[in-house]
Predict the structure.
Amino acid sequence: MKTNRRETTTPTLRAEMRPRSPAEALEPGRAPLRPKGVKVRRERKALSGFVRLFSGLLTLGLVLMVAAGAAVGLLHQHFEQPGPLKEQRTVAIPKGDGVIAIADRLATEGVISSAWAFVSNYKLRGMAGSKMAALKHGEYVFKPGASMREVLDVLGEGKSVLYKVTVPEGLTSQQIVERLMAEESLSGEIAAAPAEGAILPETYGIEKGMGRQEILDMMVVKRAQVLQAEWEKRQPDLPFKTADEALVLASVIEKETGRADERDKIAGVFINRLRKGMKLQSDPTILYGLYGGAVQWGKPILQTEIDAKSAHNTYQIKGLPPTPICNPGRAAIEAALNPAKTADLYFVADGNGGHTFSDTLKEHNQAASTWRKVEKEIRAKQEAAGEVGAKADGSKTDAAKSGAQKAEAAASIPNPPAEDAVQAVAAPVAAPITTLNAAAAAPAGTIPPPVKKPKK
């Protein structure tokens, strides 16, 4: 027989469970007694303190992390925002300054707003694994509103101000060293002048304070590279075997003309004469043979100097001089290795800043005669200008003195001694633009005395 679950509670038990009064009904119920045999576990005081400490540390760490994140965010924002500079400014960073000293200098100059923010960002980026380049010394230009990041990039990449040092073509190594020593933007000494022709004349970009020996070494390396590159592109069957010989010829070409459209033609004349075994008879070689690296290229040449024996005087020696007579430029080197293919053996000034080229002595004599007429007119104008000056102050002007000196020098040069017809060359003229001496091929008296050309 099934028992009804609702009837399991006896009436007596139900009566006992009922509250006896409304007040008793409002009282909370009492917890049942603990079963017998179960031990009471008491909380340990030490463990409770450790938990509280650990919880506090976690809370503090979390707070610090949030604060650090906020600080890094503010630093990053400060690092990327435009700086306080209102106009372009140049700042010199001395050699040996550290990050803090550089930051202080930049802040003092108004380039950055906060030195500590600059240093902090630099250090934090390094700690975070970013590859930070060492800040380099030099002189830098900072644009208006440059951010700290842009300033740091400029200093890290060493984008310092570049100065230009120009070395003109045709100077001797001694003259180039003297120019570098006089350049105030450079520093240090030069041990010794390099070999003649070892420097490539060009315009070089340098940093302020760069060592003089350092830039000189750079010029020497550059010349070696250019000469080697041009040597590999040379014409076949040239009358020299080494690049150094080509450099010697290039130095002579450099002193013969400053016109770009004539270098290969003059190179062609010298190449033809070398192939025929003729003397080059180039006036600049006379001057270099006499005075070496201290030569004055504009000096008039006297007959006694033409006759002077020296290793470089191509009026006295056959073939090329033993060394270059100056430092030729890139264009002169190219001309020496790729000369114009002509039959010309002579050239003389045309009165317009260029030269007239000839392959026969007869044509050359006619061109030389034309040049003498032009030179005579130039001299007359110079003397006339000198007379006007003399009337004004009773003394000769510089123009008159120059004209008189040139006329005296020209008149003092007799015709060179006659040689065989194969050795005939153009009449000598004053460096730096010179011609070959044609008088050597003709009997004495058939060619007027040599004359001087205007300076380059």
